[in-house]
């Protein structure tokens, strides 16, 4: 299948495309060659720097795997805590009462407008000053608190978008059979919205996993990125460590992304919900800050 | 009440944040557009490179990229961005480089979805006039695509503004680094945090509002 943007290449276009390919390949090879030359020059390609990853099991048992475990722990805790909080705020923003809707909107917009790093730094210092949480677990608390505050507000928007994406008939039918507002929400709307939201929630997990790295760099949480520093300090293999850890992140997040896509397809096929399936793209649209939420164009109605 | 602010260059730090944002935004717009062009181009190798770049970069934490620019690019590869002796300028430029590399992937994806919103007939009409791929893209498709992606681009810009704080990990003296210094040394934790939070709300909220308004104005009516 060819793109609609260009004609099926004829003989001249084919020749031209080959020229472009060769030039582009040459440029890529030049950059790659330079990188490899420098790395070889600095001794980063020496077998000794790469060998620990296959021959020395301590690399995995003392550095990488515990660090990966910490990354996953922080991400999982953050998601588990952020989900109910996000659901509460998402539903609160849809409340009929202005005094519930207003403050909920203010809180959500406030935390979405602030960098996660600021939230982490604040929680770290907050726990240090006002609580007696021991300093071993304080980084974890700080990272999880920062992530929860931010992601709960993002998930609140996801929940709201999920509920708004349901057809109006659902609410009307619930009212017609005499359900109260709370019952309509918990029995009719939320269960359907949750299935529609599942892929978006898994995609948000990718964002959370990536943000845990901030905790390693600024709050001192012993997660995957921090293991680069400790490990390269021990084996003097900074570039190999960076590459291995980056590959681990890519594989982990790629698995999550694929899972989200698979889930999206499954939910769509299953048709358990009358709502639309929220995809990662729509989730990115939700990243906006402003009074007017982007909810698939349905908020205007 | 605000005595503790003395000795700290609050506005200076936020000015660095703004500079980081502006330079990185321009850079990622250019690099992201090039990537989007590659991803829809007739040359398979460029398409492959574009999608590989986007998929890898989007799945790596920004922190690792920024840290790599300092510990990998600068220290090992000797890329000093023309400021070998001036540490302050060097880390600033390296941070911009990292931010551009990361956010270009998101710009590319936003733009690509914008290209998909342009009706097929537009490209077909352009081709039937005899325009080449580059002409179709730059004269017909991209101008319309850009107008339809102002909203998503605004989201990337807001995320970029917030992500400039990550530059603190390599010691760029922007808002988050100043905040971590201040809450370390001063007692007024809540007040300091409120000031910095307010600063970021001031930066991101108007961006969202203004670009939201712009996106409604320029959207192609179909």
From TrEMBL, chain A:
Q: Which Gene3D superfamilies does the entry link to?
A: MetI-like
The answer to whether the entry has keyword Translocase is no
- One Pfam family this chain carries? BPD_transp_1
Q: Could you tell me which SUPFAM superfamilies the record lists for this protein?
A: MetI-like
Q: What topology in the membrane does the UniProt record assign?
A: Multi-pass membrane protein
**Keyword check for Lipid biosynthesis:** no
Keywords for the protein's UniProt record, in alphabetical order: Cell membrane, Membrane, Transmembrane, Transmembrane helix, Transport
Give the residue spans that cross the bilayer: 18-36, 74-92, 104-122, 142-167, 188-209, 234-263
Location comes to: Cell membrane
InterPro entries for the chain: AA_ABC_transptr_permease_3TM (IPR010065), ArtM/GltK/GlnP/TcyL/YhdX-like (IPR043429), MetI-like (IPR000515), MetI-like_sf (IPR035906)
Pinpoint the ABC transmembrane type-1 domain residues.
Answer: 68-260
**What family does this belong to?**
Belongs to the binding-protein-dependent transport system permease family.
The molecule here is called Amino acid ABC transporter permease
Automatic annotation (TrEMBL), chain B:
Q: Where in the cell is it found?
A: Cell membrane
UniProt source species = Streptomyces actuosus
Identify this protein by name: Amino acid ABC transporter permease
* Protein topology in the membrane: Multi-pass membrane protein
Q: Which residues does the UniProt record annotate as the domain ABC transmembrane type-1? A: 14-211
Where does the signal sequence lie? none
Q: Name one Pfam family in it.
A: BPD_transp_1
PROSITE patterns the UniProt entry points to: ABC_TM1 (PS50928)
Which CDD domains has this protein been placed in? Answer: TM_PBP2
> Which InterPro entries does the annotation name?
AA_ABC_transptr_permease_3TM (IPR010065), ArtM/GltK/GlnP/TcyL/YhdX-like (IPR043429), MetI-like (IPR000515), MetI-like_sf (IPR035906)
């Amino acid at each position: 299948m060819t793109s609609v943007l260009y004609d099926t290449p004829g003989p001249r276009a084919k020749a031209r495309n080959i020229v472009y390919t060769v030039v582009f390949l040459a440029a890529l090879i030049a950059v790659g060659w330079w990188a490899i030359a420098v790395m070889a020059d600095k001794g980063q390609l020496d077998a000794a720097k790469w060998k620990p990853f296959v021959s020395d099991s301590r690399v995995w048992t003392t550095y990488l795997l515990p660090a990966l475990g910490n990354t996953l722990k922080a991400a999982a805790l953050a998601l588990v805590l952020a989900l109910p909080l996000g659901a509460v705020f998402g539903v609160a923003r849809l409340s009929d009462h202005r005094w519930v809707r207003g403050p909920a909107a203010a809180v959500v917009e406030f935390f979405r407008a602030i960098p996660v790093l600021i939230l982490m730094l604040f929680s770290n210092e907050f726990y240090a000053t006002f609580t007696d949480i021991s300093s071993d677990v304080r980084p974890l608390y700080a990272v999880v608190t920062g992530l929860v505050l931010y992601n709960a507000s993002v998930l609140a928007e996801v929940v709201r978008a999920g509920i708004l994406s349901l057809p109006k008939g659902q609410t009307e039918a619930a009212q017609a059979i005499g359900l109260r507002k709370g019952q309509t929400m918990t029995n009719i709307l939320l269960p359907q919205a949750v299935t529609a939201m599942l892929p978006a929630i898994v995609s948000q997990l990718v964002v959370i996993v990536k943000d845990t790295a901030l905790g390693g760099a600024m709050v001192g949480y012993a997660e995957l990125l921090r293991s680069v520093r400790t490990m390269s300090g021990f084996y003097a293999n900074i570039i190999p460590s960076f590459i291995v850890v980056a590959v681990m992140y890519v594989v982990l997040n790629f698995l999550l992304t694929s899972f989200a896509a698979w889930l999206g397809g499954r939910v769509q096929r299953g048709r358990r919900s009358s709502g639309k399936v929220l995809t990662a793209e729509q989730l990115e649209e939700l990243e906006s800050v402003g009074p007017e939420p982007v909810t698939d164009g349905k908020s205007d109605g | 009440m605000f005595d503790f602010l003395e000795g700290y260059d609050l506005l200076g730090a936020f000015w660095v944040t703004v500079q980081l944002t502006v330079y990185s935004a321009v850079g990622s717009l250019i690099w992201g557009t090039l990537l989007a062009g590659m991803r829809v181009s007739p040359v398979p190798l460029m398409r492959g490179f574009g999608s590989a770049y986007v998929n890898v970069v989007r799945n790596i934490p920004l922190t690792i990229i920024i840290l790599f620019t300092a510990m990998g690019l600068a220290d090992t590869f000797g890329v000093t961005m023309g400021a070998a002796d001036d540490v302050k300028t060097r880390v600033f430029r390296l941070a911009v480089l990292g931010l551009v590399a990361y956010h270009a992937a998101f710009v590319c994806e936003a733009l690509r979805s914008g290209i998909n919103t342009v009706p097929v007939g537009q490209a077909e009409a352009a081709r039937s006039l005899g325009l080449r791929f580059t002409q179709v893209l730059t004269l017909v498709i991209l101008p319309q695509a850009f107008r339809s992606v102002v909203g998503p681009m605004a989201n990337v810009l807001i995320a970029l503004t917030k992500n400039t704080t990550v530059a603190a990990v390599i010691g760029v003296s922007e808002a988050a680094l100043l905040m971590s210094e201040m809450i370390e040394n001063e007692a007024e934790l809540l007040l300091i945090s409120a000031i910095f939070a307010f600063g970021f709300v001031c930066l991101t909220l108007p961006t969202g509002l203004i670009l939201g308004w712009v996106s409604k104005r320029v959207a192609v009516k179909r």
